[in-house]
Amino acid sequence: MDSWTWLGFYTAVTSAAEVKRKAKAGAVPVDLRSAEDFSAGHLPGAIHVPADEILADPGAFEARVRKSRPEARAVTLYLAGGEEPALYRVAQALSGQGRLAVFVYPAGYSGGSSDHSTE
Fold it and tell me: pTM to 2 decimals?
């Protein structure tokens, strides 16, 4: 087990700059919003996995992340911002499910970053 895995816990990320730093260190940003919202724009390097899909089958999440990013060590979950209860439900569902550490970015896509992208 590496130093990013905290058996059943998740940690809040407070800024878009911190999301970027974590991404460089192996934490994949995961956009939990709708496909339409993701297509309209998302954080740099993000993959799309809808929140309802994770809640329906949390055990399948890690395999999905690793399929697109085999090097992933962690994930940073986000929604649009202002949707903390839904964000924390997803984080709680993922806690202890696998070997990926889970971070949450409560400010979400609307978190004031000028670095938004449509990669």
Answer: 0.85
